[in-house]
Write a structure and sequence with these properties.
Layout: H1 5-15, E1 20-21, H2 22-31, H3 37-40, H4 59-74, E2 82-86, H5 92-100, E3 108-112, H6 116-126, E4 131-133, E5 145-150, E6 159-164, E7 167-176, E8 179-187, H7 195-198, E9 206-209, H8 211-224, E10 228-237, H9 239-242, E11 253-256, E12 259-261, E13 272-274, E14 277-278, H10 279-288, E15 292-298, H11 299-305, H12 307-318, H13 322-332, E16 341-348, H14 364-377
Parallel strand pairs: 2-3, 2-5, 3-4, 5-10, 10-14
Antiparallel strand pairs: 1-7, 6-7, 6-9, 7-8, 10-16, 11-12, 11-13, 15-16
Length: 378
């Protein structure tokens, strides 16, 4: 008789002496073959557990297409170039982007998707037009690459830390009755990007970090991108905001049926688990892999300033397209997705600028200040 995911997790807890690091629990809950959340649930859309930006029309894809075009021109407008999306789910965003790229469609397109179920969906959607692979290592090294993702990094497993009696300890998972519960493990050091703030954290402070996972990911991208640009869109903050002492409850959460909950241990495999991205750490890992930050801003500013978006919104306003204008407000306004979501563009062997983006909304200098402060403390 086949084991359930809960039984597999229980067996691993016992094999590890009764305590399992939360990052391993999250890895199994989301990605266990055939049993994890992304292997058996329908996460997207009204019938799923959450809405992503591409489901609100094509405005997000238009901003992305403008950014990809700027990246392609910065690379010298090559005929031979590679476009890669990672973590695209069923491929809706990639399909929108390819339709918008018009005459500069790339000759080679890859979709990197960890979930076997979602890979099969993409293969059915794109046929031979896109090569669908399971891991970044399957993308061949190239001299002209544009690599993008939306809501990818937030699903990388995290370690959870808790401050008790002046020390940070790892928070792990144990068996508790018929379910699972929390228990503290060994003392641990604070994340590199949080060292300046950790002493001020109050008793019981919770924090998450995924430095190891991000560093591995960026090293994988460095193998494929000899020269190119990486565009990362996700929800999160700079480390100075993410780890401020008043954010005492952390950002770890589960989503099910469009309801957010802090109970991430219930019914593994049946709900999404996520935590906000530390963009300072993400940029640091990119630098360590040979990339340099080019742009850091809010999703709202990035979308609102994009030429393709402005053209579409002008059409929507002229035609009184209430649905499109409502989607724009949700994507752009601070009380929607506009401020919580951020955009990081970094590059290797090339400099990229988005000339349409107003200087007043560009936060790259602030990101570089945090990176410089980390280097000075090292």
């Amino acid at each position: 008789m086949a084991q359930t995911l809960a039984e597999i997790i229980r067996a691993e807890i016992r094999a590890r002496g009764g305590w399992l690091s939360f990052d391993r629990f999250m890895e199994l809950a989301l990605y266990a073959p055939g049993l994890g959340y992304y292997e058996r649930q329908e996460p997207f859309g009204e019938a799923g557990d959450f809405i992503t930006a591409p489901m609100l029309g094509d405005l997000f894809a238009r901003a992305l297409a403008d950014t990809i075009e700027a990246a392609w021109r910065a690379l010298g407008a090559p005929r031979d170039w590679l476009l890669v999306e990672q973590g695209g789910g069923e491929g809706a965003l990639l399909a929108q982007v390819l339709a918008l790229l018009d005459g500069l469609a790339p000759p080679s397109v890859y979709a990197v998707e960890k979930s076997a179920r979602l890979r099969s969906r993409q293969q059915a959607r794109f046929g031979e037009a896109v090569r669908v692979v399971a891991a970044p290592e399957e993308v061949p090294a190239h001299d002209a690459v544009v690599w993008f993702s939306n809501e990818l990094v937030d699903a990388f497993p995290v370690r959870v830390l808790e401050k008790r009696q002046g020390k940070l300890r790892a928070r792990g998972v144990v068996e508790r009755g018929e379910g699972f519960g929390w228990a503290l493990g060994d003392d641990v050091a604070p994340p590199q990007t949080a060292k300046a703030q950790a002493d001020a954290w109050p008793e019981g402070y919770l924090a998450e970090e995924r430095a190891r996972e991000v560093e591995i990911w960026r090293a994988q991208l460095a193998q494929a991108i000899r020269r190119g640009i990486v565009i990362t869109v996700d929800y999160g903050y700079l480390a100075s905001e993410l780890y401020r002492p008043t954010r005492a409850g952390g950002t770890l959460a589960a989503h099910r049926g469009h309801v957010r909950t802090d109970d991430v241990l219930t019914e593994p495999g049946a709900q999404d688990i996520t935590a906000h991205v530390d963009f300072t750490q993400l940029a640091l890992a990119a630098e360590q892999a040979g990339f340099a930050p080019q742009l850091f801003t809010s999703q709202g500013a990035w979308i609102a300033h994009a030429p393709r978006v402005q053209a579409r919104l002008a059409e929507a306003a002229a035609g009184a397209d209430a649905k499109m204008l409502a989607a724009a407000r949700r994507l752009v306004m601070p009380h929607g997705m506009g401020e919580t979501f951020k955009v990081l563009v970094d590059a290797r062997g090339v400099d990229v600028r988005l000339p349409w983006l107003a200087a007043r909304v560009d936060r790259t200098a602030r990101l570089k200040e945090e990176l410089a402060a980390l280097e000075a403390r090292a």
